[in-house]
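Table S2 (continued). Query chain:
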Amino acid sequence: MLAARFGGSNESWRWRYGGPIRAAVGSAEYFEVVARNGQIVLTPVRIQRGDALRAKLAELDLQEQDIADAVAWARQAPADRASRKK
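Corresponding output:
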């Protein structure tokens, strides 16, 4: 068997793969999934660290004031920072 399902629930399908499949796709962690002609086609997706960082920052929806507050907090003395943690 080239691939086997593992994991706890139907919502989280994760696959373990090896042998010729591993050699063909390398160390891909994410796959684009497409249903085509009754088959499920997985295409390896290479996510760059910069892309992941930009996605996380967009998810946080930071505003200019958030950045200003973080910079002001970071510039405080260590003792002041500990007393003002949120």
